[in-house]
Amino acid sequence: MDTEERRSAASAAGGTRIPRQPLWVEEPAVRRRMPDPVRTAAVRAVLVLSLTIIQAMVALLSTITGSWLAFPMMLSTVGSTVVATWAVLDVWVTRQVWNQRHGVVSVPSSSARQLRRERRAARRAEREAARIRRRGASSLSGTGARAPVRS
To answer: What string of H, E and C letters represents the secondary structure of 110-149?
Structure first.
C-alpha cells in the first residue's frame, strides 16, 4: 500500500488527519556563533589537548606495567603539555585580536568615538561657515549679486 492509498483509506474510514509537523524546528541561538578564526583555534586546541591526555594515559599505563615505552612517552607528554598550553593561549589571543579588530564596543572607546563625532561635526560646521563666507565675499566683490541675509 503506497502513501496515496493510505491517505484515501484514512479519509474513507473517517479518520482525522494529523497535521504534519516539520521535521526540523529552527530555534533562535542562545549565544552568538564564534568567529571563524577563533573557532579554528579552539578546535585545534581541543585536538591537541585530547592527544596530550591520551599520551599521558599511555605514559601512566606504561609506567605501571614497567614497559620500556614509559620514559619516551613521559618526555613526549611533557612536550605535548607545552604545545597544549600554547594552543589554549592561541585561542585566547585570537579571540582578543578578533574583538579588538571587529568592533566590540567598550566604554572608553565609545566615549572616544563620541568625542571624535563631536570634533568632526565642529570641523564640518567650520568648513561650512568658511564656504559661506567665501561665497558671500565673492558676491560682494562687485558681481552685482546680493549677499544672503542672515537672520
So the answer is: HHHHHHHHHHHHHHHHHHHHHHHHHHHHHHHCCCCCCCCC
Summarised one tens digit per residue, pLDDT across range 125-147 is: 999 999 888 887 666 655 555 55
pTM of structure? 0.51
Task: Measure the CA–CA gap between 32 and 35, rounded to whole angstroms.
Answer: 9
Query: What are residue 3's phi and psi, to 5 degrees?
Result: -65, -45
HSE-up of residue 115 (Cα within 13 Å, Cβ side): 6
Task: Report the distance separating Cα 4 and Cα 137, nearest Å.
Answer: 87
The CB density around residue 151, as the number of other CB atoms within 10 Å, is: 3
What is the tens place of the pLDDT at every residue in 41-67? 999 999 999 999 999 999 999 999 999
Rounded CA separation 141/133 (Å) = 12
Cα separation, 6 vs 2, whole angstroms? 6
C-alpha cell at 66: 614497567
Q: What is the mean pLDDT of residues 96-105?
A: 80
